[in-house]
Design a protein that fits this description.
NTE family protein, 254 residues, alpha/beta, NTE, Cytosolic phospholipase A2 catalytic domain, hydrolase, 10 strands, 8-stranded mixed beta sheet, lipid degradation, single chain, lipid metabolism, two-stranded antiparallel sheet
Amino acid sequence: MKIGLVLSGGGARGIIHLGVIKALNEQGIVPDFIAGTSAGAIAGALVAHGYSPDEVLQILLKTNFLKYLRPSFSAPGLLKMDKVEDLYLQLIPHNSFAQLQTPLIVAATDIAQGEIVYFDQGELIRPLMASSCLPGIFAPVNFQKRMLVDGAVLNNLPIEPLLDRQADFLIASNCNPHSLDKPLNSTRTIIERSLLLAVRNKTQERLQRCDIVLEPKEVGRYDIFDVRKAREIFQIGYRCALKQPMLLSSLSKK
């Protein structure tokens, strides 16, 4: 049986993916393919490279991400991600899809052509940067004659490339639950809620096609920029994956 693991985007909320993967691994479940968008692509790439979920968590806790961002004065975005490439090269020096321990598919959006693009071969880091390039905040990433931004614009749960690879069983880790209990008391929270609702609307049908959906409601309490709460978010994903022991246990024996 071929197992596909799909990881959604969602900023800091995507740290739940690391907890989910840790719980799956502890139960003997190792995906044959990983597909991800934005934060899901980043988590997927680091795990596919060979880092354990706990090691990735420590990287997140120790890294000052602000020093890798710089203002954009001419490009269409507030910040440039150029220096982020240096960080990724430190973490994944080979910069190659082919050298990953687990096959990975990264989703990004060609903003000029209005189409989703999947990357699974050749250079790894530029597509990874593009997949998490939030429009308006970061200047688009130019790669292979395309102007690329966050994959979540068109596909925040990229199950299609896993189905194309004939995955028999799909596990989805989604960090954007349908949660309406968070106070809407600022412009930022209104914008964030609007974006999440739009993403959720496009994701619902894909979630229904997955065999297991891990979608902890409590992660909805966190902002997409809450990296400082990484440990808490990690544990939410870990506990969520452990709540389905019967399904996951039967899967690990197949």
